[in-house]
Amino acid sequence: MAAPYLPLLFALTIAVVFSLVFVALSKYFGPKNPTPTKESVYECGVAPVGTARQRFSVKFYLVAVLFILFDLEAVFLYPWAVVFRDFVYSGIEGAGVYIAVEMGFFLGVLFLGWFYVVKRGALDWT
Predict the structure, then answer these.
(1) Reported pTM
(2) pLDDT at site 56
(3) pLDDT above 80: residue 6
(4) Is residue 13 classed exposed, middle or buried when 0-12, 13-18 and 19+ CB atoms within 10 A define those classes?
(5) pLDDT digits (tens, 9 = 90+) for 19-28
């Protein structure tokens, strides 16, 4: 019963073993000559200003959450359209209407969230 999965298990084992071996080889045999320049923080070629422990504005996190929210909306719309098309052509009475109403509810909740964010001024960066 597990025979079809043996090649996959074999490939994963080889991948893990090779990864661990090469990491260990680079750690033990790789060149080690740290300098202050190599040990310094590097971000986009600009010298760091201030501490790394500074506080970020809540708007930064809010925009990140909004991006995830609306990205998920876009991800769910395409599969929904495929299923909707299949249900419309399946001949089941009222299936297309039910699925369209459900998607309308989903988009309505997302629209309410977007409206709330706009009214709160979360997208205003002034």
Answers:
(1) 0.48
(2) 73
(3) yes
(4) exposed
(5) 999 999 998 9
DSSP 8-state assignment for residue 57: P
DSSP 79-116: HHHHHHHHHHHHT-TTHHHHHHHHHHHHHHHHHHHHHH
User: What tokens were used for 36?
Assistant: 């202050």
| Residue 21 tokens, joined | 């071996």
Number of other CB atoms surrounding residue 39 within 10 Å: 8
Burial (CB count within 10 angstroms: exposed 0-12, middle 13-18, buried 19+), residue 7: exposed
Question: What number does CATH give the domain 3-120?
Answer: 1.20.58
- Please, what is the average pLDDT of the chain? 83
Structure tokens given for 69: 């929210």
Assess contact for 73 and 66: CB atoms under 8 A: no
Rounded to whole angstroms, the Cα distance separating 73 from 108 reads 11
Instruction: Name the residue among 105, 83, 84, 108 with its Cα closest to residue 96.
Output: 84
